[in-house]
């Protein structure tokens, strides 16, 4: 049973278009299958006049259609059960991941593109209104009474993808026809609140890098799409099938979409949802093939149905390319901090998932001494040396944040801009856009480079932020990559990951170590202060207070510059 529904992007504005759509009958059939085990009494209400035990779907569909315009007879004794059936069917529909695919050519004219987006909006709004009215008509014709309260709950598409075919010149394309055979997504319209429930909410393992051809083995069916993304300064094509469009919606809220006029052959490729047998049973949780390009692949397995896999395989491909270019990929965050006393600094915080990077930035933003906090990198960036200075570049225009570690109400204050993943579970996540693409790809000189230590219990304010005197000591702490696991992956307790970066650094450790030594020495030479900030996020009872106290000490240090 598919959890995703894809609707073609044409206007649906009357009941007959809904009821006669094969998709509607498919939904009814799936719901009936659920009821066979969970509530057979509801089926009995629909089949009461049937002598055969076999379900007659033609009669069910005809009955539902009549119910949109014809009230039930007053003496019908099954009204309560029929009411429950319609409510259940409506809820069953609303639990699906619902998308509209609108095909529109990407034109050079800004006004033409704006009109295309407005038309797509109209398609989405009309579809939602029609679905809701079908439901209400059925309900009203069962109860034949005026409802006192009407709830305008989301029932249409959660996201509308506007797509076009590839317009690249044939002579400029790579030799693999499948790369250009599927629709390219060039815009997304969200209908908040956007909430998805996936089969998994944790990631495990690292993605091995295998030097093997894969591009020539790829075959895509008609239910695949490509989302071209700017990941920092790189262009990466993300291919994803319709069952995983929820992850495409998440990625579009986290990265800058490349428009058709910006397209060229990609720097890297990601495929999400490839059949396991095509990938190889030895790579159940994903792999990166080193072909002509780096090709990240996530197999279609329930345990991989987690947004973290889509995000991290993408960043792994990015980081591998950065290492090949002798740049230093950083699993961390970067922010410009300005105080009311006029002092300011740009700080980078490095650490693995759950180290307290995002939480420390959030704490900084709430201090009265801070006049402005501009987040440039939330999770992954890279360092380069330009004109003798260490500068940072970002990758993402949003943040993929644990709900559990944010202040109460933080995510919901941005509910109209966010994409929520499994909000009812441990490690619930929200994807919140926060930045401007032009800002994250602008070289930003850094003043502080911190390792985010979430496991050391600190009782003295003096020890919340420490600085290294020797390059060797700094390299040792950063390379050890220690942290207390926070439930964001399958790990528990203390864990260690080389340079807190299992997304490329550990796979190319020999090359990476040379880059680390070069960049660390340059930091000490150029005056970048390298140290450790103790967030205590991994210590029970300090999940909120730990990042706050660490941020408070950092504010004091900046004020004394």
For the structure shown, list the relevant keywords.
561 residues, alpha/beta, nine-stranded mixed beta sheet, seven-stranded mixed beta sheet, 26 strands
Structure explained in plain terms:
- The chain has 561 residues and is of the alpha/beta class.
- It has 14 helices and 26 strands.
- It has helices at residues 15-19, 22-38, 40-47, 57-67, 79-94, 110-143, 245-252, 276-279, 307-324, 357-365, 437-440, 471-480, 509-526, 545-559, and strands at 4-8, 97-103, 159-164, 184-190, 194-196, 209-210, 224-231, 234-241, 256-257, 268-274, 287-290, 294-299, 328-339, 344-350, 370-377, 380-386, 389-394, 398-402, 419-421, 429-433, 444-445, 448-453, 465-467, 482-484, 494-496, 529-534.
- Strands 13, 14, 15, 16, 17, 21, 22, 23 and 26 form a nine-stranded mixed β-sheet that branches. The chain has a seven-stranded mixed β-sheet with strand order 6-11-12-10-8-7-9.
- Helix 3 packs across helix 5, helix 5 runs antiparallel to helix 6 (110-143) and helix 10 (357-365) crosses helix 14.
- The N and C termini lie far apart (61 Å).
Instruction: Tell me the number of helical segments per DSSP (H or I, 4 or more residues long).
Output: 14
Our Rg estimate from Cα atoms comes to: 26 Å
Q: Which residues form runs of ≥5 with pLDDT under 50?
A: none
Structural class: alpha/beta
Largest sheet: number of strands, sense, barrel closure: 9 strands, mixed
Shape: globular
Mean pLDDT: 92
Q: How far from one another are the termini?
A: 61 Å
Number of strands: 26
- Beta percentage is 25-35%
Percent range for helical residues?
25-40%
């Amino acid at each position: 049973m598919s959890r995703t529904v894809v609707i073609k992007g044409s206007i649906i504005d009357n009941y007959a278009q809904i009821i006669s759509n094969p998709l509607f009958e498919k939904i009814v059939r799936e719901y009936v299958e659920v009821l066979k085990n969970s509530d057979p009494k509801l089926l009995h209400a629909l089949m009461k006049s049937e002598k055969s035990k076999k379900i007659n779907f033609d009669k069910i569909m005809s009955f539902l259609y009549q119910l949109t315009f014809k009230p039930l007879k007053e003496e019908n004794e099954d009204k309560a059960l029929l009411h429950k059936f319609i409510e259940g069917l409506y809820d069953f529909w609303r639990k699906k991941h619902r998308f509209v695919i609108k095909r529109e050519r990407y034109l050079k004219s800004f006004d033409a593109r704006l009109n295309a987006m407005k038309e797509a909006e109209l398609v989405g709004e009309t579809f939602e209104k029609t679905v809701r009215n079908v439901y209400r008509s059925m309900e009203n014709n069962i109860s034949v009474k005026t409802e006192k309260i009407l709830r305008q709950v989301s029932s249409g598409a959660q996201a509308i993808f506007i797509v076009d075919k590839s317009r690249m010149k044939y002579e400029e394309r790579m030799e693999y026809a499948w790369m250009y055979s599927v629709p390219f997504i060039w815009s997304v319209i969200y209908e908040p609140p956007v909430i998805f429930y996936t089969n998994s909410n944790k990631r495990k393992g690292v993605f091995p890098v295998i030097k093997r051809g894969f591009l020539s083995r790829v075959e895509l069916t008609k239910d695949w799409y490509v989302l071209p993304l700017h990941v920092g300064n790189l262009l990466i094509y993300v291919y994803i099938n319709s069952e995983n469009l929820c992850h495409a919606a998440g990625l579009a809220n986290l990265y800058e979409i490349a428009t058709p006029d910006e397209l060229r052959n990609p720097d890297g490729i990601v495929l999400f949802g490839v059949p396991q047998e095509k990938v190889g049973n030895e790579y159940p949780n994903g792999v990166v093939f080193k072909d002509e390009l780096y090709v990240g692949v996530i197999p279609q397995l329930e345990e991989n149905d987690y947004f973290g896999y889509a995000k991290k395989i993408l960043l792994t491909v990015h980081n591998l390319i950065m290492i090949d270019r002798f740049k230093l990929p950083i699993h961390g965050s970067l922010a410009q901090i300005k105080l009311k006393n006029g002092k300011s600094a740009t700080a980078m915080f490095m650490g693995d998932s759950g180290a307290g990077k995002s939480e420390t930035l959030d704490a900084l933003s709430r201090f009265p001494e801070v006049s402005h906090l501009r987040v440039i990198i939330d999770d992954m960036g890279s360092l380069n040396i330009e004109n003798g200075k260490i500068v940072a570049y970002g990758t993402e225009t949003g943040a993929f944040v644990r709900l559990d570690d944010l202040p109460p109400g933080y995510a919901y204050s941005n509910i109209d801009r966010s994409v929520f993943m499994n909000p009812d579970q441990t490690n619930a996540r929200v994807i919140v856009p926060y930045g401007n693409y032009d800002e994250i790809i602008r070289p930003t000189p850094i003043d502080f480079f911190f390792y985010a230590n979430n496991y050391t219990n600190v009782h003295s304010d003096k020890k919340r932020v420490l600085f290294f005197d020797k390059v060797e000591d700094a390299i040792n702490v950063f390379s050890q990559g220690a942290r207390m696991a926070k439930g964001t992956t399958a790990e528990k307790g203390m864990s260690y990951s080389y340079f807190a970066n299992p997304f490329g650094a550990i796979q190319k450790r020999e090359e990476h170590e040379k880059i680390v030594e070069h960049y660390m020495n340059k930091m000490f030479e150029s005056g970048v202060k390298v140290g450790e900030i103790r967030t205590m996020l991994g210590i029970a009872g300090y999940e909120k207070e730990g990042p706050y106290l660490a941020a408070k000490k950092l504010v004091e240090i900046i004020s004394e510059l």
